[in-house]
Design the sequence.
């Protein structure tokens, strides 16, 4: 699944929202005017900016949650029931933006994927682009996933196929089942290790932001893409093994 | 999503499923994957070292119908071609032949990758034994 962020992303790049309150003309905050407290029309910002956060990947989820509940309360459409129609609509739009932003940013993987898209990385396009490059240069495309993982995926799929065949024929192969269970626990461990590894890439990204180093940012993004690719393979494998083993 | 008739045909009746001895000098093996969907595809070619013609091709793909159809078609197409001719096969031709929808284009990309990887592997093997014949222009 991909998150449809195209709208907000496109909008975020297209210039600044009005900086003054529509009602009283004072400088406004993202959601409400500081001076008169009126709800503001949703401004085309990305989710990080929506919460007034920098694009850092280490996020204090507890404080994000507090902010979310506070804003939810303030933006609740019921509160503006007596306001004019325009304000009611803004409240509603801001609320739905708030929900999307919170759901995306609180989840470590979704947050990472979202940042990658904000930074112009198209996960779905990477393979095609690399193939076109390889075709043009005549070089062999570097596989996005390391060869030993591919090998493992392939071998495990072969075993899964054998298991399914056995089950179809009503045959039992305890050695095969045991083998697969072994693979599964190894993969699950690997999957957990990836979460730790992801954090190290977050740190690299955040540091690169502080240092304003484009090069380091690029490197961190590449690492995250690589990790998410491996992760989806492993997740699929674990799912398939679970399904085949019937638990 | 509906599959085209050609995809269904390759899917329910895949050509050239199987494997060859990957240690043989005449065999090139390409193992590639698409992380978007977790597919993995192995394509092998057997090349006549005198003529550089691909005499046989086998594949084994774990993935969706489109991935299976793309690799099945790829084995059909490379057979009888020289390795250099096979390198000209583009994923867009597979898309066209199978009428793949945009969301399945990566399956055709995978098939092109597999062909190239198999040829690369074969060339590398020839490189050790016979560098001149193996060198592509």
Sequence:
């Amino acid at each position: 699944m991909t998150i449809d962020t195209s709208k907000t992303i496109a909008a975020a790049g297209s210039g600044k929202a009005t900086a003054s309150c529509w009602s009283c003309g004072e400088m406004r905050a993202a959601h409400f005017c500081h001076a008169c407290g009126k709800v503001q029309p949703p401004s085309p910002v990305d989710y990080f900016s929506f919460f007034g956060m920098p694009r850092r990947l280490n996020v204090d989820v507890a404080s994000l949650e507090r902010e979310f509940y506070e804003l939810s309360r303030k933006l609740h459409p019921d509160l503006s029931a007596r306001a004019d129609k325009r304000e009611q609509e803004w409240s509603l739009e801001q609320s739905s933006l708030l929900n999307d932003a919170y759901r995306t940013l609180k989840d470590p993987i979704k947050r990472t994927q979202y940042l990658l898209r904000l930074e112009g990385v198209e996960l779905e396009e990477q393979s095609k682009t690399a193939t076109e490059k390889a075709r043009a240069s005549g070089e062999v495309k570097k596989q996005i996933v390391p060869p030993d993982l591919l090998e493992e995926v392939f071998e495990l799929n072969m075993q899964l196929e054998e298991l399914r065949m056995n089950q179809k024929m009503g045959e039992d192969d305890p050695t095969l089942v045991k083998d697969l269970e072994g693979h599964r626990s190894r993969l699950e461990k690997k999957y957990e290790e990836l979460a730790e590894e992801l954090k190290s890439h977050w740190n690299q990204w955040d540091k690169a932001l502080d240092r304003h180093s484009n090069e380091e940012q690029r490197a961190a993004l590449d690492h995250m893409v690589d990790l998410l690719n491996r992760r989806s393979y492993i997740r699929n494998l674990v799912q398939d093994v679970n399904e085949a083993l019937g638990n | 999503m509906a599959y085209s008739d050609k995809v269904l045909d390759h899917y329910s009746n895949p050509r050239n499923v199987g494997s060859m001895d990957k240690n043989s000098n005449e065999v090139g093996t390409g193992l590639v994957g698409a992380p978007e969907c977790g597919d993995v595809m192995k394509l092998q070619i057997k090349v006549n070292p005198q003529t550089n013609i691909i005499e046989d091709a086998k594949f084994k793909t774990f993935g969706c119908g489109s991935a299976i159809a793309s690799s099945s078609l790829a084995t059909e197409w490379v057979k009888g071609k020289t390795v250099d001719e096979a390198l000209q096969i583009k994923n867009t031709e597979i898309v066209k032949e199978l009428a793949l929808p945009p969301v399945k284009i990566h399956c055709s990309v995978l098939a092109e990758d597999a062909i190239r990887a198999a040829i690369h592997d074969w060339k590398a093997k020839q490189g050790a034994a016979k560098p001149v014949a193996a060198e592509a222009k």
